[in-house]
Amino acid sequence: MKRSNKLRLTALAAGIVMAATGCGVTGSSSSEGKAAGPITDMRIMVPNTAGGGYDTTARVAAKVMEDTDIASGIEVFNLAGAGGTVGLSRTVNEKGNGDLSMLMGLGVVGASYTNDTTASFEDTTPLARLIEEPGAIMVPKNSPYKTIDDLVAAWKKNPGKMAVGGGSSPGGPDHLLPMRLAETVGIDPNKVNYVSYDGGGDMLPDILGNRLGFAASGAGEFLDQIKTGEIRVLATSGEERLAGVDAPTLQESGIDLIFTNWRGIVAPPGITDERKAELIAALEKMHATDEWQEALKQNQWEDAFMTGDEFAGFITEQDQRVEDVLTKLGLA
After folding, report:
1. What is the CA radius of gyration of the chain?
2. Per-residue pLDDT tens for 234-291?
3. How far apart are CA 40 and CA 87, in angstroms?
4. Nearest Cα to Cα of residue 121 among 106, 131, 134, 133
5. Which of 37, 169, 291, 302 is surrounded by the most beta carbons within 10 Å?
6. What is the rounded end-to-end Cα distance, in angstroms, of the chain?
């Protein structure tokens, strides 16, 4: 299991609640001049391991598009590494490849600053923001902490001793949430023992094995384990409770913090205008289906759909916010 070294990082600036190859093949010509019908030759890269939030989102989107005849033969594949920046580098390097796209979010934006990469989201072709979701503070079923108050009380006694797991690199949502939580409850974030994993799939064994004091991530990645009782959610970080998850919000628990993550999809730079329009149109059709609306409910996702230039502006804003914060922390 791939896991980075433990990180001890400083507090985040107030107000950063987030609303996130090289072959050069040009596959876009395959879509030009075709009669209207399902789009073809679409590949969605997931830049972390199977089982995580990006992976689930990509596979659900692909299934909905295929089940509703919006697309056919979609290939979803994983290319994990360096917090998602291996996938980002490949996407940027495949200039003009209209068949390739990448599922991404706040985690990869942060990782683009904290890992050794020259790839930037400014070099991609933004297609659509798909979802938003709150974070969840989770423990295994045999944890001694039954409430968020129990956890915070123990954490305050010895912050450095309690391992805090997250499925993202520094600057990503699973890192930002516990750092913001520590700051809010009066714990020095310099003392937080954050353990970074390459996605929720990699983190799951250590949650179930009780090797973490708690984990911070999206509940959607662990719904099966939450439903069976193997994982217990102590609190969630949105404005409202998550349907189907028996846990209060942080605010309900007297902790004044709201935090949300987001995910979207981008393509390589230099794809044709025709292919870009075709891909965005397919995602717009998917968003309008009953099947997608049902998937949002089942996975505890919030609808946060936006496309094209609007999404590009949103990424630029998020990128600047993350850069500002990580620069203050000495991590960018």
Report:
1. 19
2. 999 999 998 889 999 999 999 999 998 999 999 999 999 999 999 999 999 999 999 9
3. 22
4. 106
5. 169
6. 26
